[in-house]
Amino acid sequence: MKEVTATGKTIDSAIETALSQLGVSRDDVEIEIIENPAKGVLGIFGQKDAKILVKVKESPEITMAEFVETILTKMGIEAKVAAAIDGSRITLDVSGPDMGIVIGRRGETLDALQQIAQLYVNRIYEEYYKIRIDTENYRAKREEALIILAKGLAKKVLKTRKEVALEPMKAYERRIIHTTLQDYNRISTHSIGEEPNRRLVVSYRYSNAPKGNKKEEK
Predict the structure, then answer these.
(1) How far are the Cα atoms of 6, 15, 19, 37, 40 from residue 46, in angstroms, in the given order?
(2) Which residue, 84, 86, 96, 108, is most buried by CB atoms nearer than 10 A?
(3) Strand residue runs (E) in the chain
């Protein structure tokens, strides 16, 4: 429900009725007075209640939560989306019984959903917003797994002095590994290939060799 018409003996009582129906606070709405209350003759005859129209203010985070819920519904996925905004960053957390489908293989479906939401928010708002969509804390778990992988690879390369090429990864995943290994003096990292098959290479860096380029991942 985006708006509601309410009546009351006073403007304030009508507003309280509308806010209760909408489930929001007064700061979240715009109020239009349609009719002022009238006491009538002797305070009885011809008495009129106040009549108002209360509209929920449009907010980017709520708009995007509803947009994502609509997409998931059309996919046949039952889900709820909780939204939060911090400056220009909008965080959407999806919950429901079929979150494995939302995540997809290695987060591909989740990333695709995030990209669609990012394109949409930039189309409907003049101000730039950065969208982040997560479910079941997947992104933090994935980052933790990549950090563990990076440290394990570093240990292996330091022992064997042989480079290791990983399977293709998204840019932000390669960046996590780059960042994790940047303080290893004997480890060099760089990426090879073209998207979407670009992959990370972890190499042993000899004392006279330059460090790998860790700034290439944007």
Answers:
(1) 19, 22, 27, 10, 4
(2) 96
(3) 3-8, 29-35, 50-56, 80-86, 89-95, 130-135, 164-165, 187-192, 199-204
DSSP 8-state secondary structure symbol assigned to residue 12? H
* Residue 43 backbone zone (phi > 0: left; psi -120 to 50: alpha; other: beta): left
Q: What is the pTM of this model?
A: 0.69
Sheet holding 199-204, edge to edge: 164-165, 199-204, 187-192
Q: For residues 34 and 8, what is the distance between their CA atoms, to the nearest angstrom?
A: 12
Q: Kindly compute the dihedral angle of the four CA atoms of residues 10, 13, 18, 24, in this order, to the nearest 10 degrees.
A: 130
Please answer whether residues 54 and 3 qualify as being in contact, where contact means their C-beta atoms are separated by less than 8 angstroms.
yes
Which tokens go with 155?
């240990």
How many helical (H) and strand (E) elements, i.e. helices and strands, does the chain have? Answer: 6, 9
At 22 the pLDDT is 86
Q: Give the residue with greater pLDDT, 104 vs 126.
A: 104
Contact, 13 vs 50, CB < 8 A?
yes
The neighbouring-strand residues paired with 131 are 90
For 33-44, what is the mean pLDDT?
A: 77
